[in-house]
Amino acid sequence: MFSINRFFIKFSLAMLIAALLFGTAAAFAFLYPEHFNKWLPFQQMRPMHTSAALFWIISGAAACVCHFQSRHILDARALRQLLSAFKLTWMLVIMVVFACYCINDYGGREYWEFPPFLNLPLLAGWVLFAIVMLAIFKKSAPAYEWMWITGVIFFLITFTEQNLWHLSWFRESYIREVTVQWKANGSMVGAWNQMINGLSVFLIIRISGNKETAYSKMTFFLFFLGLFNLMFNWGHHVYNLPNANWMRGVAYGVSMTEWVILVILIRNFKRNIQEGRKLKHSLSYRFISSAQTWILANLGLALLMSIPAINRYTHGTHITVAHAMGTTIGINTMILLAAVGYILHADDMSDRSVRTIKRSLWFANASLWVFWSALVVAGILKGYLIINHPEMSFTDVMQHVTPFILIMAISGILLIPSLGLIAFIFIRIPAESGKQKDKASNAAERDELPVYAE
């Protein structure tokens, strides 16, 4: 693996640590503004948290895809240079984003609240990434490469769509602008889910040694379902806006269903894997197993949220946050840590480090369950009080909800020494220790991975 990609991966892990720190600070700034707003104001901590989380997921997925696709461009200098330009651009712009936050320079929209001009270099960098991915892609590629390429392309589309508010025609109507914003953000999640789904399938193949999975009907069904999902399930994001009922029906029918197939794939992987191979890749195996548990939990929550009658109560409450956090941390982060651990050869670390990661993973899951449950209860209570007791002021409603937000904030603190420690250990793995193993891995992947079907 090229050294810059290893640095890009570790930069992404730093974004994970930053998201944990800023998220905890934002929670306490929200609960105790009189103590925190002087030094750590909520209006500053929240965009820092959301941007760090987004950049961890997107950059981490892109870095892992770059690594696993590097075997296709070992002899293509121009493509390597384009990838390097993409990574350097993204890392530089991300650092500028947080510098702008530090001086209270905003101007964007939800989740992308930094000055809008920074979207241009981000877009240009991603175009370079897309060019490389398209240059090495073949129609006979395995399912996981189809997931990667569609995820990259649709992120480019939805990122552009998310910035349509710069056109005056969209800003002329508040409903029009909000509809496009919510639709774009919902579809964008589906785009990076495609990349992460592809990583999970790739890891399953590499760890289990079952090459047939790459071209199986079930895996390709997962690909098409995920693609259909990112194109059409965004409807449940705009239930509360004046839209046609058929959009709500389509959204309900396709919302989050790709997780069902992914659970089946992972379950078959766990059932059929040989014990020796499981132990050889024990850390990646544990992270993938954790993701399966959170897929099931968030699948149930997402399906309930997609029912219009229930969505009336949950939309805009802490249940939405619970779904977002459960997906971001429980699913996406676990799969990305599995991929990063595999890339960095984490299983070859000292026994002490491996044990520390296993204990930290258990502690992270326990803390996340408390975190997630507190948000769900807070969301149910808030939605019930707002809808059924309109006479209550928002302040009175939040007084009933605050104890559960406090539980969430405390459990969020516990995520820092667990997930944060895992990320820190991965960051500390020296680059030199992986150079020879990276060469061996590239050679092994050429021999062991399924070749393009003719």
UniProtKB/TrEMBL annotation:
TM region positions: 51-68, 88-106, 118-137, 146-165, 185-205, 217-234, 246-266, 287-310, 322-345, 366-385, 405-427
Disordered: region residues: 435-454
Pfam families the record matches: COX1
GO CC list: membrane
Record key words, sorted: Membrane, Transmembrane, Transmembrane helix
Record keyword Amino-acid biosynthesis present: no
GO MF annotations, alphabetized: cytochrome-c oxidase activity; heme binding
Gene3D superfamilies from the UniProt entry: Cytochrome c oxidase-like, subunit I domain
Entry annotated with the keyword Transmembrane helix: yes
A biological-process GO annotation: aerobic respiration
Signal peptide: none
Protein name in the entry: Cytochrome C oxidase subunit I
Organism: Pararcticibacter amylolyticus
